[in-house]
User: What shape does this take?
Amino acid sequence: MDNIVILDCGSQFTQLIARRVRELKVHSEILPWDVSLGEIESRKPCGIIISGGPMSVSDEDAPSVPEGLFSLGVPVLGVCYGMQLITRMRGGRVTSGKAREYGRTEISVSGKSPLFEGIPSFFEVWMSHADHIEELAPGFTPLAETSGGVPAAMEDAEKGIWGLQFHPEVVHTRFGTEILSNFLFRVCSCSPDWDLGDWVESMTEEIRRKVGEERVICGLSGGVDSSVAAVLTARAIGDRLDCLFVNNGLLRLNEAEEVLEQYKKLNLRVHYVDASEQFLSALSGVTDPERKRKIIGETFIRVFEKAAASFQDAGWLLQGTLYPDIIESGFKGKNASVIKSHHNVGGLPEDMKLNLLEPLRDLFKDEVRRTGRLLGLPEEILSRQPFPGPGLAVRCLGEITPERLETLRKADWIFREEIAAWENYPEIWQAFAVLLPVKTVGVMGDCRTYSEVAALRAVESHDGMTADWVRVPYDILDRTARRICNEVPGINRVALDVTSKPPSTIEWE
Ligand code: XMP
Assistant: This one.
């Protein structure tokens, strides 16, 4: 299988490059910029892409790539920062400042190159750079320039090195996919042989080989990743897979029953662990969001450990870890500040003495969904909106009591029921209700009420990192608000959250 190595210099778009390459049916993997040349060679790349990055090539600790990269006999493409880095490393000149370009701009292509084969000579691209190339390195010819006269593309065809100042991976760049496709197929002569159907077959074999005659346990959350991982593993080793579904008492209305029913149809052996009381008593009296998250994470570990102990002959723990998780934990976010402590089913103790089985660790989320489809998982599971590990605890602001959870469940159910009927519902990332620990005065019949407030939150997002609030039609909001006040004791007012992320986060805690 042909492989493209992407060296990550810190751009927010690096993962997007990897996905675009895979969409063109060529396997791609991301490595940190400071990886050794030997490591790169061991991946047998048929092409190398150096990503963009937030720094300036002249910064003291700016990312760089091994010098020997250009002598491997493998084509290299530098994108944005990557093009500037190449220029500097090969003896050209990069200057800071004056020609900043962010966002849309137009470029004109002058030179003839396989990179621009079949592409018009004038089109719109997406730029994001403060530095620019003052003088190309010896051996390079310009292929395109921006309307501001800045080099937008270059090549040294003899040495097999190309550069693009703009981002071909973002949708705002017209013909971006065509340019990447030209790099893969005309420059690198890759074969479009990355096929998820083949991947499923070879991963099934690999799971069989790895696990041998041993047993595997896994924690199912009802979400896409753990479900696809479990079905794939069951396909490989049949009934030697035992799944645990932990009810932490923080699930939505009827959720445990529905999820268990769905798993039954998938022929998975699922053991239901009702730990609601344990979670709720650990959370009793706690109002601080971070403490709630910590308690839930720790309790989950204890519950899972105890339940897993009854499968003494298990040798493996299956987890639905995805490629972005590996990249993030491997070499990104070193200086990132903790906004929220995320606790997923994955946060299990290291001393469990089980081998880790992570069959999805090479896949992106959209590839996991497609794999799920290939494996015959029902659309209800594949298109489920994300639901946070700490569940309703982070939507029930203030103290968590069984009564307040019940109130929230009912309000949340009504909102989701009303909005699910909307034609734009499939495009919504998440829609849910939040219960606020704020009492307001109302009037019902002829009586005064003094009850809590429900807030409605519906957002659209691609990855949960940024989000915008959804403009839900007034009549849906109106019906929802009236129903909540009429049908849910304990709520007499409904508010709508109209903030994006940033500055807010999607969940309220
Ligand atoms: P925030 O609230 O940080 O959420 O904007 C971004 C996305 O992550 C989900 N989320 C979580 N998912 N464990 C999870 O598995 C967690 O602890 C957690 N906290 C937030 C949230 O629902 C949204 O989709």
